[in-house]
Amino acid sequence: MTKSVAREPLRRNSRSNRARILATARAELGRNPDITLEELARAAGVVRRTLFGHFPGRAALLEALAEEAAETLRSTVEAGPEPTEPAELALARFVFTIWPVGDRYRMLLALARRDLGSERVAEVLAPAREAAATILERGQRDGVFHSHLPPAVQSAGLEAMHVALLEAVNTGALEDDGRRIAVATLIAAGVPEKRASAVVEEVASAMRASPAGDA
Predict the structure, then answer these.
(1) Angstrom distance (rounded) from CA 96 to CA 201
(2) Of 174, 112, 188, 183, whose CA–CA distance to 145 is shortest?
(3) Count of CB atoms within 10 A of residue 82's CB?
(4) Torsion angles phi and psi, residue 173, rounded to 5
């Protein structure tokens, strides 16, 4: 019993160290993708041995970040727009819910294909890609989005735009709380600019007013 009680603070401390290392990695890798693990340990306020005890190498650290991002993305998509919501509102809401995840893990953009590989990146993004394509398909069917591209192709194009805008945030060229990218996404999908702006404001107001938006 005494040993079990003694171990619990150690486990809590270990979990705290791991969380601190991952949070530091998200911040520092965004500023310098080539930062060393030794430099990360110093930035996280832990000794080198502690960091390597959790992550024996750069690949293990990046995989942990990728898994963290994948789980966050999955839960975010699951809590996303209702299937019955009008497609233009659903797309705006989807962007608002996904944008903070992308903003939090935008440092992975600089590391994704170089360090993780395209297949792993595709696995991480699969839930968001499927959800976006479903909304776009519904919008095309309802006549609110242009239909000269298949939904999956249109989704890929919008994703590339999001990546570019996230990179602009990463370099400091753009600041956005999701509104600009939501309007740009609707316009790219075929919604007239004034209507796109009105939809985004409607969704933003509804999300602010809802308990989920306050969480």
Answers:
(1) 11
(2) 188
(3) 8
(4) -80, -15
CA atoms within 13 A on the CB side of 104: 15
Structure confidence at residue 80 as a pLDDT band (50, 70, 90): low
- In three-state secondary structure terms, 45 is coil
Prediction pTM value: 0.77
How many CB atoms are closer than 10 A to CB 141? 12
Instruction: From residue 184, give the alpha-carbon distance in Å to each of 105, 106, 126, 150, 215.
Output: 21, 19, 22, 19, 26
For residue 75, what are the contacts with CB-CB under 8 A and spacing of at least 6? none
User: Tell me: the pLDDT tens digits for 145-193?
Assistant: 999 999 999 999 998 898 888 778 777 898 888 899 999 999 999 999 9
Token duo for residue 64 = 């942990």
Contact 91/200 with Cβ under 8 angstroms?
Answer: no
For residues 131 and 213, is the Cβ–Cβ distance under 8 A? no
145 contacts 191 by C-beta, under 8 angstroms: yes
User: What's the Cα-to-Cα distance from 77 to each of 23, 71, 72, 102, 145, rounded to whole Å?
Assistant: 22, 10, 9, 12, 21
- Distances in Å between the alpha carbon of 144 and those of 55, 195, 212? 48, 11, 27
